[in-house]
Design the sequence.
C-alpha cells in the first residue's frame, strides 16, 4: 500500500530535549516536505526537499533541521524544542513538485 | 501570492443530507486537491483535480480552472463525513508548497 509513515504519532517532551520525528514514504517520490498546523494559522511549510541531499527552507524553518540522505526518508529534527513548537506536524511526499501530494498521519507534539 | 478561500466556514447537516463546498482561488493553478481532516487530525486525500470532474462513491468534485473555483459535493452525508475539508493549490513560488484554504468544518448529526 502506498503510504507516508510518520513516527511518533504523539509526543510530549520537555524544553531543550532534542527530538526527531521520522518520515518515510514507499512511493519512490522525489519531493518531500514538512508542515506544521496551528489554530488560526493553518498549515505552514517548514522545510522541503526536491531530491536526495537537496533541502531548502520553507516559510517557518527556525528551530528545525532536516536531512535527506535517502530518497524514502526525511526526518525532522528539533535540536532544542521550545513551547512555541507545540503543534501538529505533517510530512508530505509528491512524485515531483506540482503533482498529487500524500500526507502522513500527523505527529501531535507538545513541548512543556 | 495565490489566495485560497473556502465557503462556507461551518456547516451542520442532518445525516442523509447533501452539501456543496466551494473553493475559490485568485490565480491560475496547476494543481488542486481536496482533503478531509478527520477528528483524529489525519489528512485524507479526497481528490486531485486540477480541472474537470471526478467521482468517488458519495463524493464528487468539479474544478473550473478558467473561472478559478472548485466544488466538492457530498451526497447522503454520514456522521463519518464530519471533520474539516480543505482545498489546496500550488503556490506561485517554485517550492512545491501547497497553499491551503482555511477549511470548511462539517458536522453531520445522526
Sequence:
Amino acid at each position: 500500500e502506498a503510504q507516508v509513515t510518520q513516527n511518533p504519532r504523539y509526543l510530549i517532551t520537555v524544553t531543550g530535549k532534542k527530538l526527531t520525528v521520522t518520515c518515510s514514504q514507499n512511493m519512490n517520490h522525489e519531493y518531500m516536505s514538512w508542515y506544521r498546523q496551528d489554530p488560526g494559522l493553518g498549515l505552514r511549510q517548514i522545510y522541503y526537499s526536491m531530491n536526495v541531499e537537496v533541502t531548502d527552507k520553507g516559510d517557518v524553518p527556525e528551530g528545525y533541521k532536516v536531512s535527506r540522505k535517502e530518497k524514502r526518508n526525511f526526518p525532522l529534527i528539533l535540536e532544542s524544542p521550545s513551547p512555541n513548537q507545540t503543534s501538529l506536524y505533517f510530512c508530505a511526499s509528491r512524485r515531483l513538485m506540482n503533482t498529487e501530494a500524500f500526507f502522513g498521519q500527523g505527529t501531535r507534539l507538545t513541548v512543556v | 501570492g495565490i489566495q485560497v478561500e473556502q465557503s462556507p466556514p461551518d456547516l451542520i447537516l442532518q445525516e442523509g443530507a447533501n452539501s456543496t463546498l466551494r473553493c475559490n482561488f485568485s490565480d491560475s493553478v496547476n494543481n488542486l486537491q481536496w482533503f478531509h481532516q478527520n477528528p483524529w487530525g489525519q489528512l485524507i486525500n479526497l481528490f486531485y483535480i486540477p480541472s474537470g470532474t471526478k467521482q468517488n462513491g458519495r463524493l464528487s468534485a468539479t474544478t473550473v480552472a478558467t473561472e478559478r473555483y472548485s466544488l466538492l459535493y457530498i451526497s447522503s452525508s454520514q456522521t463519518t463525513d464530519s471533520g474539516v475539508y480543505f482545498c489546496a493549490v500550488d503556490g506561485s513560488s517554485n517550492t512545491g508548497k501547497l497553499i491551503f484554504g482555511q477549511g470548511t468544518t462539517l458536522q453531520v448529526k445522526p
In short: The two ends of chain A are 36 Å apart (CA to CA). Chain A has a mean pLDDT of 96. The longest strand of chain A covers residues 42-51. The CA atoms of residues 35 and 45 of chain A lie 4 Å apart.
